[in-house]
């Protein structure tokens, strides 16, 4: 059956109750996500369902016509997970924006896939609760995309990644069937853990339309923020090890390397010259002395000045702003490839040295920030122009990134901690998991999506 016939059938069935985009510049705007180095194909159509039934109808049509479907939330993927392929249907969940229930007693919410992360957190705050996962894109990224990529964020060191907050899912399969996984209970061992399997599956197994998520009690007092500067990466690494080992109740533990700090200082003139590493730490627990303990551990590890400590919300925001300036500072320097690897916390300094070595070997500028408390690093590769490869990444940048992935695996780590595999790392997945596990993953994909229409080219090449 032809693509025009599919678009006509889609418009006839769903056009009266959903937005269907089939031509014009707006259609082309759905080619890419935020991984702009992935060119993306031109979709045949975009549909914005308003209900789960609409999603099911769209998938039934796509399945019957053999049309590939690319699920998309807010398009904030940094791995090309929502990049379109030529002739596909982009199924956007951005109109599924209802918080169906929010139960303060059970500390559970049922939210549709298009609900923005920050909006859920604000709704929970009205009941003295919070939604813990907080990716950097939390003000624009949606719950469906967060679940599909198992997104992390700054508070992971205390609250875990998205998987730790998802109790159940509503999912539409490739043929249009609707399933529900999990329960609203904390304990549930009935059958295989399909919820855990679908979290992080990047739209390759089904389209997530709603999630049942766990909420946490909001801290009664504002977090205390500690910032400490170091003359060497080794001293900062020692401070991280001391903080993790000593057990202060930290909710955020971020590290910025010297290259990143110089980029920020060149832009904002914040007096960061001579600093080779900086830690930004927040404490939101029940123990008021924990911030002072963090500061003393940083000082003992060799902080160049007395660490700054503040419990004032405005001052804390100013201190945390140093961390939030890292990516904008990188963008000022050129086009960015933002990568995402993870290693055991004890290997963090060694991993940063390996990143620096890769940068020097290939003549590439790399800025590195890390969620130091859980060993997740984001090396950002800077370049001036698109290369001549299929992904638009210059060869020297691709080679440096490959060295970084290899280093992460050498250090008992992972090629992706929270961004996902997407397009950019699909060729690396088998190297991490091994051929037998890769075959099993392909079998799982075939069981959920036997025709292979869901998000082709992502995760499993």
From TrEMBL:
Organism listed in the record: Nocardioides ginsengisoli
InterPro entries found in the cross-reference section: FAD-bd_oxidored_4_C, FAD-bd_PCMH, FAD-bd_PCMH-like_sf, FAD-bd_PCMH_sub2, FAD-linked_Oxase-like_C, FAD-linked_OxidoTrans_Type4, Oxid_FAD_bind_N, Vanillyl_alc_oxidase_C-sub2
Protein name: FAD-binding oxidoreductase
Entries under PROSITE patterns matching the protein: FAD_PCMH
Keywords associated with the record: FAD, Flavoprotein, Oxidoreductase
Lineage per the UniProt record: Bacteria, Bacillati, Actinomycetota, Actinomycetes, Propionibacteriales
The keyword ATP-binding is assigned to this record: no
Cofactor(s) essential for the protein: FAD
Signal peptide: none
Domain FAD-binding PCMH-type: 39-218
Gene3D superfamilies with a match to the protein in the record: 3.30.465.10, 3.30.70.2740, Vanillyl-alcohol Oxidase, Chain A, domain 4
Source domain of life: Bacteria
């Amino acid at each position: 059956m032809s693509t025009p016939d599919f678009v006509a059938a889609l418009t006839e069935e769903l056009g009266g109750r959903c937005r269907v985009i089939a031509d014009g510049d707006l259609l082309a705007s759905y080619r890419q996500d935020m991984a702009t180095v992935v060119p993306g194909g031109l979709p045949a159509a975009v549909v914005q369902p308003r209900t789960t039934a609409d999603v099911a109808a769209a998938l039934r049509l796509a399945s019957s016509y053999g049309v590939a479907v690319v699920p998309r939330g807010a398009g904030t993927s940094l791995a090309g997970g929502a990049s379109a392929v030529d002739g596909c249907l982009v199924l956007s969940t951005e109109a599924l924006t209802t918080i169906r229930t929010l139960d303060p007693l059970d500390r559970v919410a049922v939210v549709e896939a298009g609900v923005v992360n920050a909006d859920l957190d604000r709704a929970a705050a009205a009941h003295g609760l919070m939604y813990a996962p907080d990716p950097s894109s939390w003000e624009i990224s949606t719950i469906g995309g967060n679940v599909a990529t198992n997104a992390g964020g700054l508070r992971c060191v205390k609250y875990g990644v998205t998987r730790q907050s998802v109790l159940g899912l509503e999912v539409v399969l490739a043929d249009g069937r609707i399933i529900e996984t999990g329960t609203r209970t904390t304990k549930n061992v009935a059958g295989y853990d399909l919820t855990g399997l679908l979290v992080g599956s990047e739209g390759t197994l089904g389209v997530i339309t709603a999630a049942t998520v766990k909420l946490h009690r909001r801290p009664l007092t504002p977090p205390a923020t500690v910032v400490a500067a170091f003359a060497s990466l080794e001293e900062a690494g020692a401070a991280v090890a001391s903080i993790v080992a000593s057990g202060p109740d930290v909710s955020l533990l971020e590290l910025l390397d010297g290259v990143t700090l110089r980029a920020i200082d060149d832009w904002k003139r914040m007096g960061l010259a001579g600093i080779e590493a900086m830690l930004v730490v927040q404490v939101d627990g029940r123990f008021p002395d924990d911030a002072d303990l963090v500061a003393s551990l940083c000082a003992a590890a060799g902080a160049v000045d007395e660490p700054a400590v503040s419990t004032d919300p405005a001052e804390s925001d100013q201190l945390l702003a140093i961390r939030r300036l890292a990516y904008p500072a990188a963008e000022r320097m050129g086009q960015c490839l933002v990568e995402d690897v993870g290693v055991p916390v004890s290997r963090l300094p060694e991993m940063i040295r390996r990143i620096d070595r890769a940068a020097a070997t290939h003549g590439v500028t790399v800025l590195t920030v890390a969620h130091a408390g859980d060993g997740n690093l984001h090396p950002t590769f800077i370049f001036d122009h698109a290369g001549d490869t299929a992904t638009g990444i210059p060869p020297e940048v691709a080679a440096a990134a490959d060295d970084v992935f290899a280093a992460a695996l050498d250090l008992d780590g992972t090629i992706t901690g929270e961004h996902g595999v997407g397009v950019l790392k699909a060729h690396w997945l088998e190297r991490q998991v091994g051929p037998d596990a890769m075959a099993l993953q392909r079998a799982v994909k075939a069981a959920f999506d036997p025709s292979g229409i869901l998000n082709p080219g992502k995760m499993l090449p």
